[in-house]
Structures are given as C-alpha cells and as structure tokens.
Cytoplasmic tRNA 2-thiolation protein 2
Amino acid sequence: MCSSFETEEFKALLQRPKTDGDTGQCKRCPNAGSILLRGYDSYCKDCFVVYVNHKFCSTIGKMRAVRHGDKVLIAFSGGISSSAMVHLVRESIERAGSQRRLVFQPTVFLILEKSVSSCYGSEEDCVSTAARFCQNYDLPFAWCHLDEYFNESPQFYTKVEDFQPSGRQAQLKELFKKVNSLTAKEDLLKRTRTELLIRVAKLMDHRKIFVGSNSSRIAADLLTFVAQGRGSQLPFEIGFSDTHDPDVTIIRPMREILQDEVEKYVEVKEIEVLEAFAQPEVMSRLSSIGTLTQDFLSSLQKDFPGTVPTVFRTGDKLTTAVKQDGEKCSFCKMPLDSTVIPPSSALQARLYSSALSTLGKSASQELIERFVVSKPEKDFSLIDCSHLCYGCSLTIKDCT
Ligand SMILES: [Zn+2]
Ligand SMILES: [Zn+2]
C-alpha cells in the first residue's frame, strides 16, 4: 500500500493546481479539453473515448485470456457499467475486425431478477428493452429467469416472443423471504446469479463470461468481502479472472475503468440509459455492508481521487493460501477455507466467540480446551461448517 509509485502519485496529486472547472488543454492533443478526470487530467471527447477504449482492450489483451473465435457470454444487468461494456465490446470487435486482430463471439445475457429486486420495469419490459439495446449494436441476446437456479438444466431464451412468466418464482421468493439482513440477501443474490451464469454458459458452450464490474465497484467489493469473511476468496472475487470453476472463466474487462469514467463515457457516446432497469432508492445506504462501503468509498473518492486506485491496486497484490484444487464450498463453489483452521487465526477467534455466545459461560472451560488448548485443526463439531466456506456459513446463518 505504501509503494513508491503510490507515494509519488499522491505527492503529484497534492502539487497539482486546482482547476475550478477550467479544463484547459487536452493532455493528448492541442484541442481544448472538455472532460476532467481525477480533478486534474483534461481530455477532449475524442481522446477520452480512445483512452477508455484503450483501457478496455489492453486489460483483455494484457492477460491473453480471450483467444480468436472464443465464445464469450456478456453478463448484462441493464446498469450503466454493463451497457458501457456492451458498447465497448461492439467497438473492440469492429476495430479488431478491420485490423484483422483478435475477434471473439459475444452473446449478451440477461438474468431477470424482478422477483427479488425492485427495478421499475416489468420483466417483459426488461427483456424487450435489453433485446432492442443489443439489436442496436448488432449483438446476439439471450435471457433467463433467476429462478432457473433451481433447475439442473436452466431454461434460457433467445427470442423476445418466447417470453413467459417464470414457473419457480414462488420457490425463489420463499428462499429470499427467509433472509433476515440486506447484507445476506445481497450475498445470496450474487451467489445464485454467478452460479446460474456459469451453468448457462456451459449449456451454451461458452467458456468465458465478461462481467461489468468497474474499478470503483471492485474496490468496494474488496472491503465488503473482507468484512463478510471472504478474505481467502479475494483473488477470485476481485482479480482480472475468476477461475474457481474448472470449465468457465469469469473475466472483468472493465476493472481498470473508474465509475465516473464509465458515466462520462456513457454521456459522450450517448449510450442509452435503460430506465426499465433503474431501481428506486428505498433502503437507507446504511442498510448493508455493501451499500455502506460503496457510500464510504465514493464520498472519499470525491476529495481524494487516489482512494479507489489505491484500494484497487492493494487488492491486486493479495494472494490466498487456500488451495484452488481442494474441496469446494457446496453453495458458492469457491475453494473451501474452513477445512483446516490454523490456531490463533481470525476465523478460529470468530468461531470461538460465536460458540461462546451460543452455549453461555458454563461451557467456556470446555471451549477453551477445545479451541485453544488442544489447538484443533479440524475439530469444529460445535459449529458445522464442513461443506460451507466461512462467508457462506454467515449468510446461511442469517436465514431463518
Ligand atoms: Zn485530445
Ligand atoms: Zn461458499
């Protein structure tokens, strides 16, 4: 976190004069700048578009994760980050095609979550809006209901005319109704959505999935996942690629682009903002660990533009000691972090504290012997987390 690069960047930031809205000359060409990034970097519209496109393509190219002809599922949520991603995919394919470079085959894929979220449009509206949006960019489109999660072989559709209400909505609603906190609900939604995307990708013979997480989102996710006890999964959750599934790789091509850069890109390229997917602000921002962390980071980012890049770059340096080819969590399918728990670890302390509060003072001596004196590495019979990772065990515990 205190590397020389970040120190120099921080010093440079402090020494830059404030522009007070005057964007000056573009830093890439002699034209007048009209877009100000990080409070001091001025770009004209053309150079800004080149800058964002370059970030997107270099992120994919740098890691050599996508090969010529690869089928890629583009996870589309209807939000501005995934709308911008669809636009960037179209642009990169056109440019690559004209230069006879890497061309992959994308399919934009939408998961309908209306039954457990509260977007303005009906499910039918969302499907027709997303289909029209993809048609504008000449990209194939497919979709399915979130409750297909309960189906071993999820049913998906490629034609808007095939739309019909889902058959398992009650089962999905019942599951989410049991969840007590918004934090656990958001985690449950993320896990079911990811698992469903992977299963659909396999059915459609796509081995890669692009998700629209930008760097601001990833920085907030990093802090959120640590708070949710998913520290050992961070390289999968926030890295360039998530390879926890042996057959399908999740890729984050937007990870070098900040939220405000996405917003400006959408504005400059006049990308349609899809109202059907907008969500009313009904909950307080303090309602979940995720929304609270996002709020905290975005408010800090306004005055200190190095905040998100610093958190983001720190995340890139983190590795996990958990073996990727070992046992997997039965819910999120991430490598299991709770099979071997070292003594004096944070997880051991948390389990001890949880057991103590459940069993009361009378059991404290037994617990001390079990957790501290005997230094157990596998014996956690008091709390059965044998097939759930630590993060999932917290989420499941929050369901009544
Ligand atoms: Zn310029
Ligand atoms: Zn898990």
About this structure: The chain has 14 helices and eight strands. The pocket of zinc ion (ligand 2) is lined by residues 329, 331-332, 334, 388-389, 391-392 (CB under 6 Å).
